[in-house]
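[Q] Does anyone have a clean structure-token version of this?
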Amino acid sequence: MKEKWMVSARKADFNAIGKACGVSPILVRLAVNRGMKTEEAVRRYLYGGLEDMHDPRMMKGLEKAADLLLEQIGRDEKICVAADFDVDGIFSGYMLWRAIRRLGGRAYVVTPDRIRDGYGLNEAMTVEARENNAGCILTCDNGIAALEAVKSAKRLGLTVIVTDHHEPIYTEGPSGQRQYSLPEADAVADPKQPGCAYPFKGLCGAGVAYKLIQLLYEKKQVPEKELYELLPYTAIATVADVMDLTDENRIIVKYGLYRLRQTADPGIRAMLRRCDLENKFISAYHIGFILGPCFNAAGRLTNAQMALKLLMTEDEGEAARLAAELSALNDSRKAMTLAGYEKAVALIEKEKLYEDPVMMLSLDDCHESLAGIIAGRLKERYHRPVIVCVPVENGRMKGSGRSIETYHMYDGLNACREYMERFGGHAMAAGLTFREECFECIRQRLIDQCGLTKDDLQPVVHIDMTMPIRYVTEELIQELDFLEPYGKGNTKPLFAEKNLSLSRGTILGKNRNVLKMKARGEGGRVLDALYFGDIEAFEDCVREHYGQEGLNAFYSGGDADIRLSLTYYPTINEFRGTRTQQIVIQNYMYTPA
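[A] Here you go.
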């Protein structure tokens, strides 16, 4: 799919801000491209610490939630922490369980069964809580849409405290105004609820739980260092839930990763060891693609309680056993996901579903917990919103969707609400349950009302700045560390140079999946360049514009004069004590001179 390259054109006095902040104008420009508009914003972005976190009292309903929870603890009421079954729910549930116990309370954590119960608090869970003699239900990472379940809990005489970060349910009036429906709980804390003045709306469920615990600990004068011990869990949840690494999330992940490397938690240490990450530098990448999926596998294929047990155990042997089981589950999940993805691609190509601006498809033999992962991969391949649905019991279907920046998936589904039994989510992801006979009605409504244009569906490569590779220095590469941690909302810096001369191509790696070459740029500077993408597609591009002879010369070291425009980011290659600068190619394009 042809990409559109766009170079950021945001303006600021890069030199003056750089001088004031003690960094280069290049680094300031990168910060400005990420939304930092003033010297103070740039300074906070580069140097922001825990003291820059927002006051939790600004979040509507949070102080009331803290006071109610302390009242329940003081009355020795058993507290049922109702969490979700994904990483965010697991870690927010664990954090609240740990905090309540630290304050002398009694608590236990429940999670819905993904297959049997679906997402969020349900009436059966409220009845079970009452039967277990709980006096209070505290939700985390769910609850904002559990209107009927909260009513059930109140009828049973339970105190209900909702903490969540998802969009509340709403309907649109004739003129487009939104009418929100909130659960009738004793306290509701969600930065996305109407009337909430909290300045950052991007916290995950564990982020909201962290802010609640901050208030609890302040009120009971628990040492601040004990609050900071919870940062690694909050960081893992933030990255695994694919939240934007901006504002508070950036601070949480930055300091959470630092503390994660030094954790004494037996469960986390066992999982790090299992993933070959113990005593190594851990980045947001490792959380999102290695550690997080192992915790997620429990809720997908069995029950999230296995992951909770790993976090709760203080026994090294039990931790090692549970970590091994979760890792094995994740291996099974990966194999099942690949099979489902390949089947989905075959269906899309056969039915030409890629012509639809919003793709909605059904996979008969897919485990329903994998639908969201498959939807995400299809979204990346076809660059359009994707909803993958699977048949479940009693003539119903469940779907999970992933979206692109130009389409708000929750709003799209909200326009189809009369066809669905339940749905929820946010701009970039959503889940839904409906009768099988409504599949085509929902699909057609989504297509008809999406409003997406061809430009909206064309992948856009956002380039920070054009910069010839002759400007790449070790000092610049080291300075880029200020921008860490990278992730959604705070991507690695991307530079571009036009018409570099490429030669001496070599395919490396055990799986022959790395292409190494020499890149000669403006002024004659030559650097090693690595490409980790689709090597066959790269070869097709060279062959199309320079012929098979040109491709042969590229690999043989001959003078083929292969010229392509590249986007890249610079890195250091350290081998046997020698440090050399290199670039990692992200995109390439033939641009006639």
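[Q] Thanks! Anything notable?
[A] The chain has three domains: 52-260, 352-449, 460-589.
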